[in-house]
Amino acid sequence: MSFRDQLNSYIHQLERRLRVGAVMRGAAVLTSVALVTTVVLVLITNAFAFSQWSITSGRVALLFSIVLALTFGIALPLKALNRRRAARQAEDMYPEFKQRLVTFAERDAQKREPFLDLLALDTLDVARKAEPKSLVPDHRLAAFLGVGAASLCILVWLILAGPGYFGHGAALLWAATPHGGSAPFYDIQVVPGDITVRRNSDLMVTAVLIGLQSDNVKLYARYQSASKWDQVAMRAQTGGSGFQFIFAGLPESVEYYVEAGPLDSKHFNIRVLDLPSVKNVRVTYRYPSWTHLQNGTEERGGDLRAVEGTDADLEIETDKPLHDGVLVLNDEQQIHLTQGEGNFYKGTIRMEKDGVYHVAALDQGQPVRLSNDFFIEARKAEPPNVLIARPVHDYRASPIEEVTVAVKGDDEFGLSEMTLHYSVNGGPEQTLDLLKQKGAKQADGSTVLSLEDFKLVPGDVVSLYAIAKDAHAESRTDISFVQADPFEREFSQAQAMGGAGGGGGGMGDQNDISQREKEIIAETWKHQGDKRATQQEAADAARFLSGVQAKLGEQARSLAGRMQSRELSHENEEFDSFVKDMNAAAQEMGPASDKLQQQKWQEALPHEQKALQNLLRAEATFRQIQVAFGSAGGGLEGRARGATSRASSISSWTPKRINTRPRRPQAPRASRKKQSTKRYKN
């Protein structure tokens, strides 16, 4: 390669380096101008609430600024760059060339002149020291690239994900989809918009401002017969965020729009037609068959009030013939009216939920309101009321007593069933029908449970509840208990001896295991019939009750174990019976806890009731221990009192109710049964 070719290649490298620098600088200028212009235009268009004309003007200004940046930042600098300019910039940076590089670039490179070869040789000596990169250093190119990339990234982020009105305005200027989709950042929502109404009817127009804060909201209206717009101020809604205006007695069609600050809404039209008006609404209620109610009629009705499932037959009278009449329910469902005699039209509404309806006529497939809104009140049918009036609470009785159980119930639509259900010691459930007359709205019934027939012993228990049904639903009471207690003489003796050996001291309700077991049974019973509880609520309740039942079983085993460890079971057979009953109760509590954990409420109840039976038997045995050792005499008395004291010290459990009446002489068994039955019945 000749010296002249080498120098031409050097000049070409200078020119290429300068072009790269010009392009990088122009790109940085372009992106920076686009970013700054976008921000400024967003601020300006936001002041005009991003109105259509402001967005259009902003787009024109943005396009103009980009064209200027392209022209003066890239196009003109590249056009002005050539061999001579590249050589001159190299001469300016390296004076050692002494105008030789410019002279060579200006001469015709195709001429065969010996002088050019000599000039190229001398110039190459300097060119080897002046690298083309020195004209536009790498750090300057990196700076141009960094500024351009940063400006571009900020601009793209602003358009696609910018916050608030900056992002929304940038997306609108660059014709991108706004962040909220098609929803405008500033808007005026006008209701009802385009609509058709009956002539001389009233119409309320409501405007809600979106993103705007303005107290000066105006409505512009132009009637069909007028040529200019009428302006009226809209009033702020009481207790609301919108503004409203009422067109009173519209005589003709109207075009209207709403203005708030710098923003105008779309233009809407109100078409006015000559349509009939509603004179009267006659309502006939056809109640569901299960209510056993006769049909009822309201001669001058409108608002509908009845139990769910009722069919309301409407007969609508108008002042002139009606074509394509409909009933519009909740502004959604349409029920077509059928024509009767004259200007009477009929339709039926099925009352299934609360709502509103109005009478309308179809015009071009759209309903035109003919009446105001009428309310629909679909009242839910309440289930029957039922309670066990006697005994009021859990009841304690002797094993030979006759207990009267009274049940009361009432229902708005009449009872179809009222039954008493009872179970002895968790055994098979027995049912007694106490309803004297089906269909009665109020009923009461009673029965006598002879505990002697059940062969109960102290500690046995009878669980009972009542159910009342009508033709639609059922209700039931909470579960309650009749507990078989020892005879009165044992209570009297225990009270007279003061609970010998301190057996009643330091005993609290919180340690009454049998009472806690009753509470578990009651909760299990409630959840068994609770159909309104969610799956999560039922699982939480099952987990809680299972834990309580398991803990109660541990307490029962612990109590029996402590009595065995102190060898109290060898003192008397009552102690041994107490330990066996407590262990039997604990054994039943284990399966009950497992069934509760699995939410098998029905299967858990028998185990719970068996556990309660054994707990109550243990409680009765403990009372017998108090009575027996309290009445013992002689040398046995000290040992008995010691044993009773030891039993009391390991047990924090005592009867909650003790008969405090004076002791009476004991009558024969038959006489006692007669007196006891008479007393409890009264």
What does it look like?
The chain is α+β, with helices and mostly antiparallel strands and 682 residues long. It is built from 14 helices and 30 strands. It has five domains: 171 residues, no CATH class; 87 residues, Immunoglobulins (Immunoglobulin-like, Sandwich); 102 residues, Immunoglobulin-like (Sandwich), CATH 2.60.40; 103 residues, Immunoglobulin-like; 196 residues. Strand 15 and strand 16 form a beta hairpin. The C terminus is likely disordered.
Count of helix runs: 14
Mean pLDDT value: 81
**Structural class by helix and strand composition:** alpha+beta
When the domains are counted, the total is 5
Distance between the termini: 136 Å
What's the total count of β strands?
Answer: 30
Question: What ranges have pLDDT less than 50 throughout 5 or more consecutive residues?
Answer: 489-511, 632-682
The radius of gyration is 49 Å
Tell me the major beta sheet. 6 strands, mixed
Proportion of strand residues: 15-25%
Residue share in helix = 40-55%
**Which overall shape is indicated by the principal axes computed on the Cα atoms?**
flat
What's the layout of helices and strands?
Layout: H1 3-47, H2 52-80, H3 83-93, H4 100-106, H5 114-127, H6 138-161, H7 164-173, E1 187-191, E2 195-198, E3 203-210, E4 217-223, E5 230-233, E6 235-236, E7 243-247, E8 254-260, E9 263-264, E10 268-273, E11 278-286, E12 296-298, E13 304-307, E14 310-318, E15 325-329, E16 333-336, E17 338-339, E18 344-351, E19 355-363, E20 366-369, E21 374-379, E22 385-390, E23 395-397, E24 402-410, E25 417-424, E26 430-433, E27 442-450, E28 461-469, E29 474-476, E30 480-484, H8 488-496, H9 513-528, H10 535-565, H11 573-597, H12 601-631, H13 635-650, H14 669-681
Parallel strand pairs: 2-10, 13-21, 23-30
Antiparallel strand pairs: 1-3, 3-7, 4-5, 4-8, 6-7, 8-9, 8-10, 11-12, 11-14, 14-18, 15-16, 15-19, 17-18, 19-20, 19-21, 22-24, 24-27, 25-26, 25-28, 28-29, 28-30
Helix pairs in contact: 1-2, 1-3, 1-5, 1-6, 1-7, 3-4, 6-7, 8-12, 9-10, 9-12, 10-11, 11-12, 12-13
